[in-house]
Write the structure tokens for this entry.
Amino acid sequence: MESVLTAVFEILSFGAIIVLVVLGLGVIASMMGIFNFAHGEFVLLGAYTTYLVSQRGLPVWAGMLAAPIVVAAIGFLLERSVIRRFYAAPIVAMLGTYALGLAIRETVRGLIGGLYISIPEPIVGSFVIGGVQLSKWRLAIIIITALVMVGSYLLLTRTAFGLRVRAALENPSLARACGISTNTIYAVTFAFGAALAGLAGALVVPVFSLFADLGIRFLIQGFLAVMLGGVGTFEGPVAGAGVIGTLSAALPWAVAPVLADVLVFVIAIVLVKLRPGGLINGRRV
Amino acid sequence: MSEEKRAPGMSRRRFLESAAWMSGAIATGVGSWVIRPNWANAAQRPIKVGIATDLTGAIGYAGNANANVAKMVVKDVNAAGGVLGRPLELFIEDTASNESLAVANVRKLIQRDKVDVVLGGITSSMRNAIKDVIVTRGKTLYIYPQLYEGKECTPFIFCTGPTPAQQCDEFIPWLIKNGGKRFALPSANYVWPHVLNEYARKVIEKNGGEVIFEEYYPLDQVEYSATVNKIMTNNVDVVFNTVIPPGVGPFFKQLYEAGFSKRGGRLSCVYYDENTLNINAPYEMEGLASCLDYFRAVDPLDPFSAKLQAEYDKEYPGKILFAAGSAATGMYRGLKLWEAAVKEAGKVDRDSVAAALDHAKIAEGPGGPAEMVPGKRHCKMKMYTAVAKNGNYEIVAKSEGLVDPKEC
Amino acid sequence: MSLPVAESSGTRASPARRGLAVIPLLEIGLFVVFAVLPFILEDYLTVFVTRVLILSLLAISFDLVWGYAGIMSFGQALFFGTAGYSVALLARDLNITSVFIVIPAAILIGLLLALLLGSFLLLGRRTPTVIFVALGTLTGSYAADRLARGWYYLGGQNGIPSIPPMTAGSYEFAEGPVFYYLALATVVLVYLLCRFLTRSQFGLALAGMREQEARLAFLGYRVQHLKAIVFSLAGAIAGLAGGLYAFHEGFVWPNMLGVVLSTQIVLYALFGGVGTLIGAVIGVIVIEIVSFWLADNYQEIWPIILGVLLLLVILFRPTGLIGLLVSQRERVGRFGRPNLARAKSREGSRHGAS
């Protein structure tokens, strides 16, 4: 019974992290139709910002607050200068963002000297519930993710801004005809996706430590999650992330870790083949 | 002042400095890092020493320590008159924790720079990748300075780092006495943990212990909940860890959070040194035991070690520490033993030096003296068991004399 | 539509020949340069160029699928690495190093694997999107990487080191000029084969597929089958490259299978310019040389420079280097027999002139 509780908790906490990352990726993919290969590096930047802030002597949670803002700003700048040229050619976008990600990753690697740096968690310790130790910080991650998701959903569905975003998503030319500046919307959306990734990075860095290749592992899982869940809706990527996160966290309990790693991807790609529109059919990619 | 390029101290300032330096370097177009001796009679043909180590990448923290030690030793040797009246010229290549880049770069050392000896490689996979280029195709002497799994008996490869026998024979009995009989062997999935665990298992069982489980994980796995759960539910007393970065930090953290050390469990890891202590917060590693050929805490016991440590700290202050798990001590030993061998042989060609290196000895080294075991190409050295307390190591046991590597 | 471009960029030539045929010049030029390089270069540089040649095979295989079949394959390294591992296992476990066995084996393995993956991804009731195929191949590459990394029999993280040299009878192919010429001969052969293929009727269908897939399907061509054929062929070439690489370098490791190499190849080919086989080769050569030089001189920051460089090229010259040298008309290519081509261009000039 204890094992089950622990397992469920681990699945939830790991799944929450994936959801945060994938949400940003999915939003960008749905809106602009491009797969941002640099998304993993936004996660890295969020983690790095947290580290920088804590280096200055400020508390870690201050860094975690700053991270999404900083990464959003970087995302905004990148979108304005580089990314927007890719909207016409999604394939070129994949490669251009890959090159961008490479540049960012290697820059961070140079700055931290290729080392693994540990960041302490803002909330230390664990709750003991029925003989099971639940890390306080991981619980916090789950709660924060849930709040962010709810907040984003509300933003998208209940505000005027959200209305404009959804309009630009469904029919860009009509939206433009109505006077909505799709350029601004795209920029803001990209920045928002980047912010989510940055937040994910900041939340996750006490768990995984800071190192230059932190972002890469989230990237592939992120793509599969988006494909699996379906592009074009809010729930799609979240569902996809849920599936991928659960598989990744649960399979190692059942089979050898080596096999579990590979199985997640094989299962995902088979699922996508069977349901090309994704689990929640918004619009085919 | 010799025309020395500054070590990549790998702080942000250094990085920015080097980026600025880049513009100045455009004119030079020098290949691999060459540190030329500055000598009045540099007309004497220098002896070329090649270092192939991970200056960047996941193992960068160790590789840079290696490079620093090499630079320090070569400087001292040259200051004392060189070897056979000839200065040493150092060629450093970055293996970048990336085996295929490493092979290309090591080829440069062999074919372009034509070095007389190569020291380096840290992980076993790196050693396996580059040894062919150096020894078989390159017909050059190769000295491997890092602790490893043993069984490297290729001619002309000499190992100056601890072997499983040196790390386990006295350490595991200590662990059983100061931890318990139930062992878990969580490991990274590559050759070193596989072979080390084979040996460790024998020693554990010979001393009355029991291996509860032995598992292998991909190197970049950062989620260890299943493993931690197994450790806790099976009442494991001692975790004999061979998971390496990046997984080890999250693993230790998750283990701590599950309450392993609180309930009296003993954490142990034979490659953990002062450099790796920075990976986790001190309380997460409280009580961690390691067995190496040198710790900073050995300095009060061995004056030469203290002198060496002080010299390194002065030359290279900062985060890259002189530590035994990072091949730094093996590098020192290897260079000094090689120097002794060349002096004895009177020549620099591979066969003569190898013959002399076979039985080379040094009276002073980090942790104590060292001796090559004739015919075995491995090195006897003193071993120390230490426990992490509050972010520093305390020596709790040491070997009687020089420990036999028991290889080949 | 593309002729006015040729007019403006080319010389005022006779109607029968628009502009200069740059591609054959490039091909011959490069061939001559490569034929004499070993005599000029030092040994270790010859070894470096051999590696570049083998990688250019991989780039050709990618150009075939993307430039001629419109499949964005992020998985060429999968076939490269699998063939490499297979021949390494043959050498290690069965002591087979004869070039007459291992090279065909490598080709066969690449072909079969590509056939399998291609069928799964491309065939089926619904036409897959480009992104799906791209991610499918990416996943294949990544999964293979993880598998090799985790499987101890394959050496795990370490890979399989110390592969004995390839043999032909009792002769050993050590690295150096001999292996260089072997690699060069292979590249030339493969290149000519592909060139022949893409200029044939089959190539015409491929060009049609590249330009307007739906139209070609309406004309009755089974587009997905064509794609699967090209994909398998490219897989075979990648496998060949993998076999050569394993014996040349002397070791195989999981990165040979992985996403990083796959994406690198895509970048190389795009950098050089797709749709003309020689463009991919040029891309590999240029990037490898630049990386080599950068790594030598700016040890700490060369990956950043590389990333930025690639980004700039992708932003400002999406047609790649070849776009600077070759006109659009030439890129689309000529097909079938020469007189047919001349008749076409004569007809085209009449249109252009008016």
Remarks:
- DSSP finds 16 helices and two strands in chain C.
- The first strand of chain C starts at residue 166 and ends at 168.
- Chain C touches chain A through 39 residues (CB under 8 Å).
